[in-house]
């Protein structure tokens, strides 16, 4: 059914709608409750798990010193106790700020009083580079990405790490102790390992 602009009757009302399943949404929700915010708080998270910390993906998780469960910002009972609803595996498709509506792929539409958009960034795919679609190219943004990279690293002997963030540094540093030869490259600056 197509919904007309301005039609909020079929949208579920929430007081605080937080779009994004990372630390910003989780800590914002926790802070709202800690500071006495009343009303409904809903986190819309595209990934199928609870909000988790991403920085350890390139460091402790790849090295095996931190488990999947240790990445969670809060556990399920913390969210339940604070009456924070997590909609995992749900993507926000459109924001209509004039009507204060967010439309999702699986959970319908939401009419909000306050909205936080904290979806983070995405790596730039190498599609414009010849060979950029070959097997053995991994991106690191999410837990499934880290699991795939960790599995591939078990048999890899060389690695080239491209990027310009703490992820690149973490992945690069954490490949060397395993006996890999690696290269770090950032905007034309190159360092052999």
Structural class: alpha/beta
| Secondary-structure element string | EHEHHEEEEHEHEE
CA gyration radius, whole angstroms: 20 Å
Q: β content, as a range?
A: 25-35%
Spatial strand sequence of the major β-sheet: 3-2-1-6-5-4
Q: In DSSP terms, counting alpha (H) and pi (I) runs of 4 or more, how many helices?
A: 5
Q: Can you give the helix content as a percent range?
A: 10-25%
| Overall form | globular
Mean pLDDT: 82
Which spans have pLDDT < 50 for at least 5 consecutive residues?
A: 1-6, 180-193
Largest sheet, if any? 6 strands, mixed
Count of DSSP E strands?
9
Walk me through this protein's architecture:
The protein has 193 residues and is α/β, with parallel strands linked by helices. Helices cover 22% and strands 26% of the residues. The protein is built from five helices and nine strands, in the order βαβααββββαβαββ. The chain has helices at 23-34, 60-63, 76-81, 143-153, 166-175, and strands at 12-19, 41-45, 84-88, 92-96, 101-104, 109-117, 158-162, 181-186, 189-192. The strands form two sheets. A six-stranded mixed β-sheet has the order 3-2-1-6-5-4. A three-stranded mixed β-sheet has the order 7-8-9, with helices on one face. A hairpin with a 4-residue loop joins strand 4 (92-96) and strand 5. The longest helix has 12 residues, at 23-34. It starts with 11 loop residues before the first strand and ends with a strand. Mean pLDDT is 82; it is low at 1-6 and 180-193.
């Amino acid at each position: 059914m197509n919904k007309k602009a301005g039609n909020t009757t079929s949208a579920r009302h929430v007081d605080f709608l937080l779009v994004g399943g990372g630390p910003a949404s989780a800590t914002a929700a926790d802070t709202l409750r800690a500071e006495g915010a009343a009303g409904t708080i809903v986190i819309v998270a595209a990934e199928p798990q609870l909000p988790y910390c991403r920085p350890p993906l390139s460091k402790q998780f790849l090295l095996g010193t931190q488990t999947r469960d240790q990445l969670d910002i809060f556990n399920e009972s913390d969210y339940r106790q604070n009456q924070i609803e997590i909609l995992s595996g749900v993507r926000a498709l459109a924001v209509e700020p004039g009507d204060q509506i967010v439309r999702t792929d699986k959970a319908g539409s939401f009419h909000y009083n306050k909205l936080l958009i904290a979806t983070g960034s995405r790596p730039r795919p190498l599609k414009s580079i010849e060979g950029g679609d070959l097997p053995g190219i991994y991106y690191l943004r999410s837990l499934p990405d880290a699991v795939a990279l960790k599995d591939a690293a078990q048999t890899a002997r060389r690695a080239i790490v491209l990027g310009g963030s703490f992820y690149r540094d973490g992945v690069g540093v954490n490949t060397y102790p395993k006996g890999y030869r690696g290269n770090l490259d950032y905007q034309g600056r190159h360092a052999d390992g």
